[in-house]
Amino acid sequence: MPIIQHLIDVVQGKCSLSTARSGKWPAVREQHLAVHPVCEVCGGTAKLEVHHIRPFHLHPELELEPANLVTLCEAHKEGINCHLLFGHLGNFRSFNVEVLADAGQWARKIKARPLQEGRALPVLLLILLLGGCAGLNVSWVATASYNTPASTTATMTPGAAMDSVSGPAK
Q1: CA distances in angstroms from 146 to 76, 130, 154, listed in the order given
Q2: Which of 3, 47, 109, 145 is 20 to 30 A distant from 127 in Cα terms?
Q3: Are strands 167-168 and 119-120 parallel, antiparallel or unpaired?
């Protein structure tokens, strides 16, 4: 691994300063991407990472093992860094041994998600709606802006009724 990229990875918490990759890693990574050329979560093809399910710095014997690898992206497609969120549970100092199951489950959800006027429903709206339906205590206020004129931008408080045209019911 080039020294600059290694230092960047150390600063981001992806590996420790003393972690050294096998000299065979570049070839294994290339072979993996040839067989698995898309992100397992979102299907993206930009900024792909070959993620170790069990981190190689903890399990060096699994570094080159194909069954320990999964393709995830860092492209922020639709605002999501799949590598960070699914591979590391939102923190590069952590890891997710259930990443394959989680990636498959979310890939199915993303593929089957409902659409609104040809666009995906915003995640925030789904959280608000599902939180209200499930009786969850959501104590924050969310502002959601849609493809509508500025006068119909809605500010929603969980549990409040919503008029589909003008925003919160009066």
Answers
A1: 20, 18, 8
A2: 47
A3: unpaired
